Amino acid sequence: MGAVGAWTAKHRRSVPWLALGLWVVVLALTSPFAAKLADVQRDRAVDYLPASADSTQVAKIQERLPGGEATEMVLVYHRDSGLTAKDRATAAEQLERIAGAHRLTGEPRGVPSEDGTTVMYPVASTEPGTDEDARDALVGDVRDIARGGDGLSVDVGGEGALATDAAEVYNSLGGPLLYTTAAVVALLLILIYRSPFLWLVPLAVAGVADYLSMGVAYGLNQGFGTSVSGQSSGIMTILVFGAGTDYALLLVSRYREELRRVERPYDAMVAALRGCGPAVLASSGTVAAGLLCLLAADLNSSRGMGPLGTVGVLCALAAMLTLLPALLVLLGRRVFWPLVPRYGSTPKARRSLFAAMGSSAGRRPLTVLASGAVLLGALALGALNLPDALKQEDSFTSRPDAVAAMETLAAAYPGHGTQPLTVITPTGRADATLAEIRGTRGVDSAERGRGGGGWTEISVTAGSPPQSAGETATIEALRDRLDGSYVGGPSAEQLDLKDTNARDRLIVVPLVLVSVLLILVALLRSLVAPLLLVAAVVAVWGAALGIAGLVFEPVFGFEGTDPGLGLLSFVFLVALGVDYGIFLMHRMREESLNGAEPVAAALTALRTTGGVIASAGLVLAATFAVLTSMPLVQLVELGFVIAVGVLLDTFLVRTYLVTSASVALRRRVWWPGSLSRAPRTPVRPDRQPEPV
């Protein structure tokens, strides 16, 4: 590092241009791949299901059966006053047209409701196979043919139609999510910097990092088979802009501070990178380590999100520590206009909100700490009010055609199954398995289907409504009785999602805590301070879930909670929340190394980093809040919990609780490091921190 420093000092005029040129080369090389990321995005059920679950095995084996994977739909004909003979003739004519236009796996048979208002026709086709575009085209064509009118409603539901509606939503996320995130970040940067030019620089760099992350994500998919879904690619964009802007805020703040003490912008940037670089590196390291722990998850969607999220964070880190400094140095002091930090000047004295907050925490640290802990604990109790697991029909904030079909079926066929379960059994035992299924309590009917490759498909109709307690009991009974066979289908998939998320929490949560703790120990040279920060972010996670429990059903009207919400929100809040603790504690350690007493070091760290932490917290919360405008309930829930958690962490935990605990513990906060034992001689006694 010394040799690198000497070389860069000698070639200070060339280094920024060299960095800029390297980024041009990198973007030129990755540009062809970034444009292809959308082509490898997959949002099939198997891309989200647990890797080892029964329902996943069913989906994989169905792909190998004659004709490949079947797209299953249900055509629902309904008239409030009762179906007429003309309605039934219309249904028959439309089904004949569908059978003539597409290759169906069997002849559709109508199942009338007891009240005579509805008839449903299960329809399946192997024509699309695993091609999502072909599936969407099939569903769209069926919907074009199956139309009602004059009081007759016709809806196309079923697993295939629901997958098409979900894919349409995921495909629509990319553009709006990117533009909305960029607009929110731009607005906040304008308000924070109060400059007509400065905000453009970090925003442009974040855009470059996002484009780079798309190219790297595509490379991971091609080289290692990393799954790419609409959810994971959307989260990657959020992380690039959110985390990247946080790093930019910290760097720009420190750079502005150094410009008042150092004459040349290049030297000021070098000093800024030396000062905040370790904190930024540790911050990105905790996020990357936390996200990579998702590789231990059994759920495909969670496991795929780990590498893509890590790519987003590391691309943001690389851009903010190389491209952003180069651009700022080349633009010089004038980029800060009209608030240009002149060499030798002192910042305008003003009353600091964070100085006042630090003073209140410093006077009664134990009282503030106890009050905050009680408040967070009380909020966490709201998690007991979270709704049950989210059902498929409740996954959309709007009401697509597939959901309308499911609602009609639920009303017209109360107490009966309306979407089949699928059993895959070895062909040699198909007859015995079929008899065993028909003898299982809760099964209405079972019919033998396709066979091939040593496996046979059996379609089972349960006697209870989809995703009800009765149907769940039937699925569990079938799995207990049918050794060597697999039970799948939409309801079985939802059950596997719930069970696997519970299993993943037990494995991933400890891994995240240990990995984050080890990074903090290495950075802060202490055990007490890292434990304090980890305990704080865990408390924030519990309080954020508690607030969600108080508003999800009563305010938002959500009928369920995404089973993956607990795990994903924990990973993001712990990994991202520790960022602000790192910014604060690293500055506190730096002040202590420069000879400040423990209380003075804590209050100075809050005063100098409080504004940056507040700005970064607002930006990060706002970027995740963008998810609440998306049309999928699971994204709205995840965005809400993370945004609320980040705000709690920013304005309560970091400013009051961590500062209060540091004041109360004094030098013990650095135990067993050297700072816990003896005062240090000031290294730079002439240095006066600048309020942010």
List the main descriptive attributes of the protein structure presented here.
8 strands; four-stranded antiparallel β-sheet; elongated; 692 residues; 7% strand; alpha+beta; single chain; disordered N terminus
Topology (SSEs and partners):
Layout: H1 2-10, H2 15-34, H3 54-64, E1 71-78, H4 85-101, E2 111-112, E3 118-125, H5 132-145, E4 153-157, H6 158-171, H7 174-193, H8 200-224, H9 230-259, H10 265-292, H11 300-331, H12 353-363, H13 365-380, H14 401-412, E5 421-426, H15 430-438, E6 443-452, E7 455-462, H16 469-481, E8 486-488, H17 490-524, H18 528-551, H19 565-593, H20 598-625, H21 633-665
Helix pairs in contact: 2-8, 2-11, 5-6, 6-14, 7-9, 7-20, 8-9, 8-11, 9-10, 9-11, 9-20, 10-11, 10-17, 10-19, 12-20, 12-21, 13-18, 13-21, 17-18, 17-19, 18-19, 18-21, 19-20, 19-21, 20-21
Plain-language structure description:
The protein is of the alpha+beta class and 692 residues long. 62% of the residues lie in helices and 7% in strands. The protein has helices spanning 2-10, 15-34, 54-64, 85-101, 132-145, 158-171, 174-193, 200-224, 230-259, 265-292, 300-331, 353-363, 365-380, 401-412, 430-438, 469-481, 490-524, 528-551, 565-593, 598-625, 633-665, and strands at 71-78, 111-112, 118-125, 153-157, 421-426, 443-452, 455-462, 486-488. Strands 2-3-1-4 form a 4-stranded antiparallel β-sheet. It has a 4-stranded antiparallel β-sheet with strand order 6-7-5-8, sandwiched between helices. Helix 2 (15-34) runs antiparallel to helix 11 (300-331), helix 12 packs across helix 21 (633-665) and helix 18 (528-551) runs antiparallel to helix 19. The protein is elongated.
